[in-house]
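Need tokens for this chain, all 114 residues.
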Amino acid sequence: MTDFSIETQELKRCVLIALHGRIDSSKAPLVEAAINEQIEAGHFRYVIDLSQVEFISSAFLRVLISSAKTVRRFNRGDIYLAAMPARIRDVFELAGLLPLFKVFDAQVEAVGSW
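Here are the structure tokens for all 114 residues:
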């Protein structure tokens, strides 16, 4: 699972972004570009599926915080995180970022909550 990929799917109520592989400082801008592309298209509700992510860097955390601020402006939307592996959850806890996001155990739950 060393290859990095982003799958974006526009659903009825939100945009599902499934991330795969390692998200280091060289890949974080790609995630940011994918989210910004959706924001420019007028989408503000997101579910980010982290089930296939094996590593995240602080650059990715910055992208998530920045994107969340943008979509939450004027109460237009939010970013929900789904299927977060224990290792990734630990990173969010250590950084103190877990309270900033709604976290769901499964992708279906997160999508359904919109």
